[in-house]
Design brief:
It contains three helices and five strands. By secondary structure, the chain is an alpha+beta fold. Strand 2 and strand 3 form a beta hairpin. It is rod-shaped.
Length: about 150
Amino acid sequence: MKFSFPTLSLCAAFATLLATAPLAAQASPSHHGNRATACQSCGTVISTRSYQQQARGTGVGAVGGAVVGGLLGNQIGGGNGRTLATVAGAVGGGYAGNSIEKHARSTLKTQVRVRMSNGGMRSFTEAGASRRQAGQRVKVVNGRLIAQR
């Protein structure tokens, strides 16, 4: 069987292509899973601030304080003075009772500011004392901060 020059050239080129194909595939960068993608829900804690959040009075403290204040005021003086002392005691006791109730029901909160990996800033409020430190890496999961390791 006799082969012509163009046929031999074509066969040689095809054989070279087949021999170098695995090397070319290894040298080219893969676009399937090797590329590190930035976590869009990750960020770095910028600052934390803890504060007492006052609770709303339910009225129980005010009513209880007014009763106690009125009873104490009623023990003072006589006649119109006693009536005035009773009213003043009830008003003062109501105010004091309301303040005591709000203080007793207040809660400690911590505001955490986070710079997200996309450059945006977000603020989160957590119950209790601060569990975060500036510079700590965190991830947002279901609206809550989770420390990254």
